[in-house]
Amino acid sequence: MNTATQMQENPPLNAPEGDQIVPSVTGEAGTAAHGVKLPIYMDNHATTPMDPRVLEAMVPYFTGKFGNAASRNHGFGWEAEQGVELAREQIAKLIGATAKEIIFTSGATESNNLAIKGIAEMYRERGNHIITEVTEHKAVLDTCKRLEKSGYRVTYLPVKADGLIDLEELKAAMTDKTILVSIMFANNEIGVIQPVAEIGKLCHERNIIFHTDGVQAAGKVPVDVQSMNIDVMSLTAHKMYGPKGVGALYVRRRNPRVQISEQINGGGHERGMRSGTLNVPGIVGFGKAAEIAREEMQQEGERQVALRTRLQQKLEAAIDYTHINGTMEHRLPGNLNMSFVYVEGESLLMGINDIAVSSGSACTSATLEPSYVLKALGLGDDVAHSSIRFGLGRFNTEAEVDYVADKLIDVVLKLRELSPLYEMVKEGIDLSKIEWAAH
Amino acid sequence: MAYSDKVVDHYSNPRNVGTLDKSSTEVGTGLVGAPECGDVMRLQIKVNPETQVIEEAKFKTFGCGSAIASSSLATEWVKGKTIAEAMTISNTDIVKELALPPVKIHCSVLAEDAIRAAIGDWKAKNGVTETAEVAVAK
Lengths: 439, 138
Known about the structure:
Chain A is an alpha/beta fold. Chain A contains twelve helices and 15 strands. The radius of gyration of chain A is 24 Å and the shape is globular.
């Protein structure tokens, strides 16, 4: 139908031969200015690369020490069990628990399911009310929604503009039917750290079980289940430089003793709370990862804060109309969530294809909805569409931060030249006064 | 998600980026989309009053790579066409040309809307009625 002659008056601007904007995951790593290796991984809230020391600890458990930790009557089983029990202790130590309080699972999604469904079922006679918050991970939200279908009542607390819940609202939501409060320790998108100790105190005063999704926090910031009054906590190895496919649930054994109905039946492993043959190499790796994280936490945290500050300062110095999402005061060391207003997130990611970060833009999600976490902060959808989540990790360097900052500045400025919104704002037009046609 | 080579090309080297004087009677401006939807396109055309040929086209787009590519392509296509010819450009042509995946079809729809909005604005400014336009086109 279209017969337009394609006149291309403008020659391509700066397109070197074979310039490829689509990142090739398997492509050759390049080297760029600053002497960094490309692509750069800066998405450590999604997952972390495994620490070589972790791999080293795991390797013997694949072939030589392959036994089933549940085999009670031969050395192969004992050897595997030893590896598992050491890991249990290493993980317990990271969070101030005892080894017997650590239950191994397949990952944090299972841990969250087990905790919430297991507690809801076990304490059904005491009450049917659960309190959580709107910015939880879907593994918590979807589990709660499922329980709503079976007669439970769930309160989803809102968050303030800084991403934190209001303790007064939590208090007000608690009733004599409340059996469980599930509030995450640190958020996976904006990295904000909830007032966990205060939440734990409120729960214990009212005899309510406190579960926290500690996936992003454990190994990054100090976690102490005793002083923080945490009763149940979900953990996973792959967010702390351990292997994927192994998680844990901390379940308090005294003051009070928490009971959980098992959700997987078959053999009564893990004190009857989670049946199934243990993933011994994965668990050994998880333990090693927890040990390293604990030993290096303070120093590594300080290093990441310095890197993050450098990144933030460089970006803010060169780009106007930026917005930090969530409080900077209570935040994971490696998290920076920033909106580059008037530039759409997916187009930004496309321009920085040699850098792995995430965006809260709708276009990057399966649902075509912008991040529900950012929306919960009261941000306009346009700001959410412009957000980038930087997740700094153990293996990021200052040179990488400099490369990322320079590249981002370059692409944001280029896209701002393309942005009609930026031009309008610069002309003094109030975008909120325009009648946009939503589509 | 993988982008087609043509989307990548338009994103990397967008054609006809810029702004025309929207107060000029020869210029039609189309502003479509909404910031909260993550897509806003502004497409402008400069029309020869004698021939009704679109002599110049400029765009600026806030949106994903496919939205940028769709509007960049739209400016290329409308240039040199008469108003009547430009009205025949449809989003399916854009989808085909850029090999847009289903999830990005709305970008092409928006680009078609932008063309029509720019033409509509030019017509309104110049008091052009549909019949008059057809007459010229013939």
